[in-house]
Amino acid sequence: MTCKPYVDGYCKGCKLGFDTGERDISKAKCKIKLCCFSDNKFDTCGDCSKLKSCNIIGSLYSKKGYKYKKYKKAIEFIKKNGYSKFIKLADKWKDAYGKLD
User: Fold this and answer.
1) Measured in whole angstroms, how far is the alpha carbon of residue 92 from the centre of its chain?
2) Which structural domain range is residue 39 located in?
3) pTM of the complete model
């Protein structure tokens, strides 16, 4: 489990339904979703070559709070190590983020 709100039913997921057309991406309010899924057809920001200079993801990372630092570390880990290594670690987490050792 990598995302407690999704597992608890509070969230439909970041990409679920947009990739199959069950959900309309044009109705998404999240700029990150629009950029990744609609504009660039990425799975996550980890697929983007412009990640370090992106103002959209940069505004998320600049927010105060522990979780935003963890989100940044997760995307950087994916970019460096790939999704399969990330999922192996993330599947052991109890919440939306955990250790990336």
Assistant:
1) 17
2) 4-90
3) 0.77
